[in-house]
Inverse folding.
């Protein structure tokens, strides 16, 4: 090998650096310093991931296995802890690094405002970096117990972040989220115990070589699936998600919807299609697909009925997660050889979908956060005429929405197109209807917001303004009072308009939205990345 | 009936009881206790499996149990903190943790 730098040397940095950032942000006293350290670490993390990606894509066929591995302390697989990377996890790491940078910059402003108490910023940064460490660790983990640990780190950190707000609603949502998360990881741990008993190894690669379709493996796969479906919030088990994602601070909602739910989906794909692939039956794969289809419709219907903007976005996550689960039935007959790890056309399509949705959803949550910060609430019925006050945030919302719907230049369009192609190749035409129907429903809930924000401005606002003009002439107290009451919504919007956002906050959201368009034009890059290790 | 089988059955039963408690019982402290019981049942299974390997206990499983206990403590502490905070903010927190 002519390159001095190897991928495996860089892998521990991705876990180590966020941990160092977490410690530094705990120790540092000044808010400004904490913010700078965080931005710097996020930047370095992105650079490291970029180097890893270029090394991976250059090394090409001389990858002896599709996994690049690093062993902590040189102990090696059965006893020690291994980090490993393949095309799919490399893509997830890149996504994590990119989103981390944008969300970190956004958080610097979000948490420096006088709106949030100083103790909130003290708590935010360490938890934030622990969460990033957990996510990176999970994507890199090569053994199933290490995955359990990272799952718990992610779970505990995100619960604490949801609770950051301190209101009763946020705390209740956090507690529910915590109990669900603990239940999910305990199911997973029980499965780990069963697998270790049966096969005597914790290593994912070794496991995939020796796993057999026995009763124990089925039980383990069932437990893993139950536990991780709880954490991914697939439809019958989604009940905790809207509250938790809707009550969290904006950057936290963004990362929860964009990445945290995807981590457990990534694990499901890993186990069903890679590590325990021999035990995956067609019936089980089909079941997951059907649940996904139900999720698309149920999530969209709930999004249509939502009264608050953040809950609408959260329910839209429930719906979009459904698309990811179409992966499982689609691998059955697309010629993705089941034992070849996470490669093949269906996997590429879904990996691309994960990236597209992550960018769009993060952009949407940030836009919703901006609206909430400026207007002081996010009740959909009271957002009339917002298009004038916050054009950039609403434009962001519209672009991200276009990607969720799957309109042409966006990444969402490409990902749905790929999914449709795979579904047709697999001769499973019924998914086509579901994919298209889901897009239609997404259009309905996105336009519901845009309609209120842009069009209805005059009809709603004018009578109130007339009243406020008459106000000085009114002598009767009662009349004045009623005028004041009527004025309230308009007043809040006006107050918000005075209360300007730092320019970078809407800009961060806008960058993410633009990213969905850019990704739409450079789909080849991402698809090549997933194909790493797909031995030609 | 071997000792190992006994432990396995007992731990599965404990897991089931804990799961039942978590879903059915409404009181939040009991829910947290139920989660802990499920954790203990998994740890018991792990320890029981450790003795399987001819004579000497398997250190990997013991390490797993230790790590698991640390995680369980962290989770319990966080949930108790949240529960007490909710309780002090509002009235009864009984029906909230569903």
């Amino acid at each position: 090998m002519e390159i001095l730098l190897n991928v495996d040397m860089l892998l521990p940095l991705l876990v180590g650096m966020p941990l160092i950032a977490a410690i530094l942000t705990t120790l540092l006293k000044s808010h400004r310093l904490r913010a700078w350290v965080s931005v710097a670490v996020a930047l370095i993390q992105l650079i490291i991931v970029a180097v890893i990606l270029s090394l991976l894509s250059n090394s090409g066929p001389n990858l002896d296995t599709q996994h690049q591995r690093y062993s902590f302390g040189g102990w090696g697989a059965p006893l020690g802890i291994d980090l490993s990377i393949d095309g799919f996890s490399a893509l997830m790491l890149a996504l994590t690094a990119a989103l981390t940078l944008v969300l970190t910059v956004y958080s610097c402003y979000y948490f420096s405002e006088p709106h949030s108490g100083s103790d909130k910023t003290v708590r935010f940064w360490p938890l934030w970096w622990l969460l990033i460490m957990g996510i990176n660790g999970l994507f890199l983990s090569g053994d199933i117990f290490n995955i359990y640990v990272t799952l718990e780190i992610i779970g505990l950190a995100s619960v604490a972040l949801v609770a950051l707000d301190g209101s009763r609603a946020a705390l209740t949502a956090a507690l529910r989220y915590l109990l669900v998360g603990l239940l999910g990881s305990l199911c997973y741990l029980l499965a780990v115990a069963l697998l270790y008993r049966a096969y005597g190894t914790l290593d994912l690669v070794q496991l995939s070589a020796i796993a057999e379709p026995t009763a124990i493996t089925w039980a383990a796969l069932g437990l893993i699936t139950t536990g991780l479906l709880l954490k991914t919030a697939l439809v019958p088990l989604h009940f905790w998600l809207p509250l938790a994602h809707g009550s969290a601070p904006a950057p936290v909602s963004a990362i929860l919807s964009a990445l945290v739910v995807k981590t457990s989906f990534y694990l499901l794909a890993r186990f069903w299609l890679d590590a325990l692939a021999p035990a995956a039956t067609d019936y089980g794969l089909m079941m997951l697909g059907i649940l996904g289809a139900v999720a698309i419709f149920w999530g969209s219907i709930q999004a249509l009925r939502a009264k608050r903007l953040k809950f609408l976005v959260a329910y839209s996550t429930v719906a979009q997660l459904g698309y990811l689960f179409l992966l499982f039935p689609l691998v059955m007959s697309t010629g993705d050889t089941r034992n070849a790890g996470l490669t093949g056309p269906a996997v590429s399509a879904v990996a691309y979908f994960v990236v597209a949705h992550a960018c769009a959803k993060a952009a949407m949550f940030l836009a919703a956060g901006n609206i909430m910060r400026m207007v002081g609430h996010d009740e959909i019925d009271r957002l009339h005429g917002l298009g004038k006050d916050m054009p950039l945030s609403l434009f962001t919302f519209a672009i991200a929405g276009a990607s969720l719907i799957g309109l042409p230049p966006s990444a969402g369009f490409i990902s749905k197109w790929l999914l449709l192609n795979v579904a047709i190749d697999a001769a499973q035409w019924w998914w086509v209807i579901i994919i298209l129907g889901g897009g239609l429903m997404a259009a309905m809930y996105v336009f519901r917001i845009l309609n209120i924000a842009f069009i209805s401005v005059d009809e709603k606002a004018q009578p109130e303004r007339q009243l406020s003009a008459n106000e000085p002439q009114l002598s009767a107290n009662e009349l004045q009072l009623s005028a004041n009451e009527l004025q309230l919504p308009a007043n809040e919007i006006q107050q918000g308009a005075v209360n300007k956002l730092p320019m970078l906050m809407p800009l961060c959201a806008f960058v993410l939205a633009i990213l969905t368009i850019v990704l739409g034009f450079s789909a080849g890059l991402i698809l090549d990345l997933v194909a790493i290790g797909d031995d030609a | 009936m071997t000792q190992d089988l006994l432990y396995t059955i007992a731990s599965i039963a404990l897991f089931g009881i804990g799961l039942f408690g978590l879903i059915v019982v409404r009181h939040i402290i009991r829910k947290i206790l139920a989660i802990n019981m499920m954790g203990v049942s998994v740890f018991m299974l792990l320890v029981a499996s450790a003795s399987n390997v001819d004579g000497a206990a398997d250190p990997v499983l013991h390490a797993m149990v230790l790590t698991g206990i640390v995680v369980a403590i962290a989770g319990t502490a966080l949930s108790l903190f949240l529960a007490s905070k909710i309780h002090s903010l509002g009235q009864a927190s009984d029906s909230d943790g569903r």
Remarks:
- The longest strand of chain A covers residues 68-71.
- The CA atoms of residues 313 and 365 of chain A lie 7 Å apart.
- Residues 168-199 of chain A form the longest helix (32 residues).
- The beta strands of chain A are 68-71, 82-85.
